[in-house]
Amino acid sequence: MARGSAVAWAALGPLLWGCALGLQGGMLYPQESPSRECKELDGLWSFRADFSDNRRRGFEEQWYRRPLWESGPTVDMPVPSSFNDISQDWRLRHFVGWVWYEREVILPERWTQDLRTRVVLRIGSAHSYAIVWVNGVDTLEHEGGYLPFEADISNLVQVGPLPSRLRITIAINNTLTPTTLPPGTIQYLTDTSKYPKGYFVQNTYFDFFNYAGLQRSVLLYTTPTTYIDDITVTTSVEQDSGLVNYQISVKGSNLFKLEIRGKGFDWPLLVKDFNLLRWLGANAFRTSHYPYAEEVMQMCDRYGIVVIDECPGVGLALPQFFNNVSLHHHMQVMEEVVRRDKNHPAVVMWSVANEPASHLESAGYYLKMVIAHTKSLDPSRPVTFVSNSNYAADKGAPYVDVICLNSYYSWYHDYGHLELIQLQLATQFENWYKKYQKPIIQSEYGAETIAGFHQDPPLMFTEEYQKSLLEQYHLGLDQKRRKYVVGELIWNFADFMTEQSPTRVLGNKKGIFTRQRQPKSAAFLLRERYWKIANETRYPHSVAKSQCLENSLFT
Known about the structure:
With about 550 residues, the chain is of the alpha/beta class. Helices cover about 25% and strands about 25% of the residues. The chain contains 12 helices and 24 strands. It has helices spanning about 5-20, 55-60, 90-95, 110-115, 155, 265-280, 295-305, 325-340, 360-375, 420-435, 465-480, 520-540, and strands at about 40, 45-50, 75-80, 100-105, 115-125, 125, 130-135, 135-145, 150, 165-175, 185-190, 200-205, 215, 220-225, 225-240, 240-250, 260, 285, 305-310, 345-355, 385, 405, 440-445, 485-490. The strands form 6 sheets. A 7-stranded parallel β-sheet has the order 18-19-20-21-22-23-24. Strands 3-2-4-10-7-8 form a 6-stranded antiparallel β-sheet, with no helix packed on it. Helix 8 (about 325-340) links the parallel strand 19 and strand 20. The relative contact order is 0.09.
């Protein structure tokens, strides 16, 4: 690291550690109760993309000051959704810049007249930078997608004998920069023989499509003016008794402070996915590579699915991404993740990044700080990041509690040579464990498969190749499973969309299910394996069984 950079890191250190003293404020999931009401704003919103050259016409013309339709044409846009796939306008598919959403809402009279009622606007996710106006008043800004944010708007709706109609305007910018999470770069292409003046592209360094918009629910909810702001649940064991402790933070009055000991989003698709997890016999997943919707976490609690909760720290591939501004933002994002998900019993581990360039010296310090900050926020859970670096060069591995490894033997190299997998996998595990003496999870492994492609002997992209590759991995995993390899996570559950490239055929095809949730051959292999492991755990002293117990894991 250069001397100047080292000085900058050192100067920032006290500031960053100052941020690590604890979470401030709550982000409880809104639920109706005798004292709380909710009004969902899902449905059709007015929408417009700012196609001006500088993408700032909306601010120059102040579109937020009056209804959006008065400043030009709008289209209907469903919320929650990603705007990229909804319209037939090809320009929206890869649009980079500001888009505008607006909706008018009629409030119940009590919300506007009862000064003992607090009215809150909550946005479940806006990717990636959002500015919110209520009746033309700048109300809230938030940086980062995938996580909720909210504002108390009582003073804007309880203003006397005005109509109880509310106009909510939200401007969202999906541009990724070296300081966003995930990061990206904007490249201007200046060869005028090939590109028009001002032409630019968004470069990303991760393998999924950068969908954007209001991707989770928007709602209004109320609380009394004296209300529970946050709850923190921790667990412990004393002798033979399990203890649940919770701390409650109350705002609005000093008379009710407690410390008490005691105990883009799609519902049909979510339920289908959990039914498939049940069918597989799977019991864990990682929220790769961003926090999933709160309803997903609730389903994990309900069905007993173990979760490694990962922030949007993906694509940290270039040295310039490990800077002071990025570090501070990354720590803020971890605060938001922990604040939101800390009370979910399904969450057993925090992941601060996926495949960062952890061989860099600057990345080592960066990861050390983010991991330490996350531990200070929640000392009860292990913290990790997912590595694909060489074991000897990884600068972040010394600071994690569990080693998580991504490897694709006989896929991204040694193409077609399935016979090498067991040796290479054994070498991987032995090297990492010898150096760090920490439990290991195989956090990604797999092969791309186009459903319906068949070849014997197996060739790449066929269902037979994916199945055979997994079988070789499983033989290697079983050699270490009872020693220090504590988990395995397939990549991936289902096919998913990516940016276009010659190596991607309508997205990433490593799923064991298609995007339509139909099984490939490998799904049946994994079902046999997962249920066999479940039965070995359930009946440790009996002969290993492979029959499926159907719903027994979830009852």
